[in-house]
Amino acid sequence: MTAERSTRDRLLDSFETLLVSDGSRAATLEAVAAHAGASKGGLLYHFHTKDELIGAMLDRLRDHAAADVERMRVAPEGPAAYYLNTSVDSGSDFDRALIATARIAQENVDAASETLDAVRADWLAVLFEHLNDRPLAQAIQLMGDGLYFNDTTGNQDPQALTSAHEILKRLGL
Amino acid sequence: MTAERSTRDRLLDSFETLLVSDGSRAATLEAVAAHAGASKGGLLYHFHTKDELIGAMLDRLRDHAAADVERMRVAPEGPAAYYLNTSVDSGSDFDRALIATARIAQENVDAASETLDAVRADWLAVLFEHLNDRPLAQAIQLMGDGLYFNDTTGNQDPQALTSAHEILKRLGL
DNA sequence: GTCTATATTCTGATAGAC
DNA sequence: GTCTATCAGAATATAGAC
Predict the structure, then answer these.
(1) Can you tell me the distance from the alpha carbon of A54 to that of B157, in angstroms, rounded to the nearest whole number?
(2) Rounded to whole angstroms, how far apart are CA atoms B63 and B80?
(3) Is B80:B123 a contact under the CB 8 Å cutoff?
(4) Boundaries of every domain in chain B
(5) Which residues in chain A are closer than 8 Å to B80, comparing Cβ atoms?
(6) Is the pLDDT of residue B94 over 80?
(7) A24 nearest nt, CA–C1'
(8) A77-96 pLDDT per residue, tens
(9) Cβ A108–B167 below 8 Å, yes or no?
(10) Which CATH architecture has domain B7-170?
(11) Which residues from chain B sit within 8 angstroms of residue A117, using beta carbons?
(12) A-B contacts at Cβ under 8 angstroms
């Protein structure tokens, strides 16, 4: 009884997947439609313009993010460790949406930059609530950003996450 | 007696500038040529294909990087502080080349990923030589990556660099 | 809701004049 | 070395059939 994923959702999934794997130039309407097993016309029924496609992606990201912030708040390992662990791309829907949005933000699309900024502010707020130490909270977020950045650039160093955790320990966490 | 910047160099500068400010989609041959005050035909005399343009950018980046690694080695404030300080985009030619290359690397262009990877490996080697502490060296590099990533996504938090330095202090640096 | 066909504009690249 | 003119193919978007 698994609910079928709607065409609309599959189109958004495909848009994100192409953005993450091959960047913005590769995420054409035709490529997105083909990846989702649909036609360009079919895509344009759901999203009248490319901007609408981007907007729908940002809406989904905000939903994902709200849920993640809640998980982070109650994570047994603590928000800091939770944050670092989930900063290395696990292939989750949320990671994909986040990296895809970063790609769009880099093209100077204000709505994408603002959404990313809001998500990052929520994370930082939880880190700060928990740690009550602004420099520490920001340093943890920077390391998380670094982990993402590297996953995203085609170079992963599996040791990096381990090192980040080791440094947390040294800082009293 | 300032030497005039050659058309070839101005074209590479413009390519990098457009990549950094508006992303890969905006860095078309026509846009690059116009930004450099030249024509598409003029550009294609110097670089026969777009791949050649990218290759020339990577060559320049490697030259910049070799010089930067030397500066880092002898920096009076030490390699770690030098690295963090130069990880927030100062608008230098080197920063521009580095961020521009990250944009291309995200499009799954192997030559760009490999060049970035080599530059990062050189930095990490200097950090490790100086600190003799792998997790610490990697954590510093992660924070530097995080600073770059944020500069690059349209969101700068001026406090982030200060926090990173504060954490270095706490870690005994 | 989804498809095919088509219009329009953009992009990378060639040819050849100056 | 640099430009203009031009072409083939790709990208976004529209119209209308099913």
Answers:
(1) 25
(2) 21
(3) no
(4) 7-170
(5) none
(6) yes
(7) D11
(8) 999 999 999 998 778 999 99
(9) no
(10) Orthogonal Bundle (1.10)
(11) 154-155
(12) 144
Please check the confidence at residue A43 and state whether its pLDDT lies above 70. Answer: yes
User: Is A7's CB less than 7 Å from nucleic acid strand C?
Assistant: yes
B20-50 confidence digits (pLDDT tens)? 999 999 999 999 999 999 999 999 999 999 9
Residues in chain B: 173
* pLDDT surpassing 70 at residue A2: no
Mean of the per-residue pLDDT values of chain B: 95
DSSP for residue A128: H
User: Chain D: nucleotides under 7 Å from a protein CB?
Assistant: 1-6, 10-16
Residue B137 has pLDDT above 80, yes or no: yes
Q: Cβ separation of A106 and B26 shorter than 8 Å?
A: no
Q: Which amino acid is at A36?
A: A
Amino acid at A25: R
Average pLDDT over residues B97-107: 96
C-beta within 7 A of nucleic chain D, residues 11-40 of B = 33, 37-40
At B33, the amino acid letter reads A
Nearest Cβ partner for A163 among B21, B103, B134: B134
